[in-house]
């Protein structure tokens, strides 16, 4: 089909992309209210088979001044709606950036800026990530991140720029009054660890 932007060639294991599609069109970066954090939407190229989209591109991340290293890729699965995980981060020198995506179900994803010299220090931002919208969030170093599941049997996938370091792993309370995060549901499942992170100093 002449107007098809991409097609899978017979006897070839890759997609052929039309010359009219620029590299910058594969990922759509939207600034959030917190400096350095971005919501990333996929540019989907549809046909009667479904769609093609690129979910990660080192070149495009670097063009936006973002960290493009991937040290680890992790999967988290939650059985019950209302499960709350986080908010987690790694302390320096193992601070990490993350790209989070929901691959099954839906989550209310929250990030908060913990950089003391930032104009958005202790402010939070939330976005719904779902299997349906394919949306992602880029979480810079110096941020904590957590989420609440909005559906049963929800799965997320996230890349980190640093390896997991148990001695650097830390967290912020999801119900910390200093943050006053407005969760959409009552938290029904929370780990003992996440219930007992220390409160931020006012």
Question: Keywords, please?
Answer:
202 residues, mainly beta, Jelly Rolls, 6-stranded antiparallel sheet, 6-stranded mixed sheet, 16 strands, 5% helix, globular
Summarize the topology:
Blueprint (H helix, E strand, L loop, with lengths): L5 E3 L6 E3 L9 E5 L6 E5 L2 E3 L2 E3 L5 H6 L8 E7 L4 E8 L7 E7 L1 E8 L10 E7 L5 E4 L3 E7 L4 E7 L8 E3 L17 E2 L1 H4 L7
Write structural notes for this entry.
This protein is mainly β and 202 residues long. It has a domain at 72-195: Jelly Rolls, CATH 2.60.120.10. Helix content is 5%, strand content 41%. It is built from 2 helices and 16 strands. It has helices at residues 58-63, 192-195, and strands at residues 6-8, 15-17, 27-31, 38-42, 45-47, 50-52, 72-78, 83-90, 98-104, 106-113, 124-130, 136-139, 143-149, 154-160, 169-171, 189-190. A 6-stranded antiparallel β-sheet has the order 3-4-12-9-14-7, with no helix packed on it. Strands 8, 10, 11, 13, 15 and 16 form a 6-stranded mixed β-sheet that branches. A two-stranded antiparallel ribbon has the order 1-2. The chain is globular. 28% of the residues are buried.
The total beta strand count reads: 16
CATH-derived architecture of the domain at 72-195? Sandwich
Question: Helical content, roughly?
Answer: under 10%
CATH superfamily of the domain at 72-195: Jelly Rolls
At the fold tier of CATH, the topology name of the domain at 72-195 is: Jelly Rolls
Described by its quaternary structure, the protein is: single chain
Whole-number mean pLDDT: 87
Q: In CATH, what is the class of the domain at 72-195?
A: Mainly Beta
Task: Assess the beta-strand content as a share of residues.
Answer: 35-45%
How many helices in DSSP terms?
2
Class of secondary structure makeup? mainly beta
What is the string of helix and strand elements?
EEEEEEHEEEEEEEEEEH
Largest sheet: spatial strand order: 3-4-12-9-14-7
The value of Rg in angstroms is: 18 Å
Shape: globular
What characterizes the major β-sheet? 6 strands, antiparallel
Ends apart, CA distance between termini: 61 Å
